[in-house]
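Quick one, T. Sequence first:
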Amino acid sequence: MNPALAARASSLLGPRIGVIVSGGAPTLHLAAGALCGFQEQGLSFQAVAAAGAGALPGLLYVAPAHRPDNPTADPAVALRAVVNMNIHDAIYDLIPNNFKVFFKYGPFSEPFYRLSQFIKRVVPVPDSYGPDYQRLVHDWIDFVTAAVAPTTLTPRSPSVLTRVQVINELVDWNALRTSPRAAFFLNTFNLETQVLQSLNNLNLTPEGFYAALAMPWLYPPTPAAPGGPLFTEGASHDPSGIETMLQDGTPPMTNLDAVLVLDTIPPELWVDPQSIYEALELAIMDPIVTLTENVAALYSLQDMVFNELGPRIPKLYRLPFKFPPWEGGKLLAWSYSTARTLWDAGYDAAEKFCADLLPAATTSAQIDEKYRYFRTLARDSREGDFLTMFGDPFKGPGQTVVVPPPGGAQT
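Structure tokens:
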């Protein structure tokens, strides 16, 4: 922890800060970069709430596993390695599919995955060849074993993909229960009760993790415990993760002063899909991002109204990400270069956020103007259009408390 940064964050945001990692596949690398940046800058959080793809970087921040490439279980090392989940560009350009994350339906994917791990151990690539060549060879081995793995997929199969137990190699579940770093919360949807539930670091298991990421069509409904009710992905119902924060009535969630939402990829950076695979990703990501934005915008309006006369609910802040314009057409790709672009954008945003907090002359009003979620909204935007369905929040007609306008908006 950086004492100076912690003191400034406590003064400007509040002593108890949480972070929310929303759903959506690109969030995986954006959040990994941002959380690594916060870890290395020395800004800590009391709680991490996650939905969907945000679960993995959140878990790596709280309780990474001891591995040969990370013997001290350093969160920064684990978060830096997330980019290796994507495919070497030389292979992805020919086969635009992430066969290291999405496995064929059927019982054969697990043993063939283990076979690829065995081959990579017994046929190591010399360090002298460099990391790029090592990734190329390893990804080629993964591709060949995934390609030859048989599938039992039929029209009557409950999903198109199968889970492979990779998460146990990345997360230390015992450390998660006792981690002093931060409490962890993950949403999932209970098919039996039709209610969005919150799993936390005390009751989350590998089965619960996979249940919380069981997106319909991709994966079948999954029990969080043997013989228990079936669950599907919580991000399909609230990809923002904000309801997870509000739903859990136990500390530290009930004691938070401020919550920082890690942004996701804005739809204006998306382009026409170049393949059926990218079209499918777009069909999944579009509603996830839109719902995330709308839920966060609505909560940010409540934040400004309810907290006008004093703290009543956690203040909501937004960590925006900036991408080079020329990268817009590649942000849905599972290539290694795209992972680096997203990860670097997350890391840079976290560094800038911390740098903005540090100067002694910085005031709460300045931080609010730049990062308070409602202040980041524009009247003529997707979120603005959504909020005006309930009146004009930028003028506040009928409000007993006039809502402060977002930056740049005219009242």
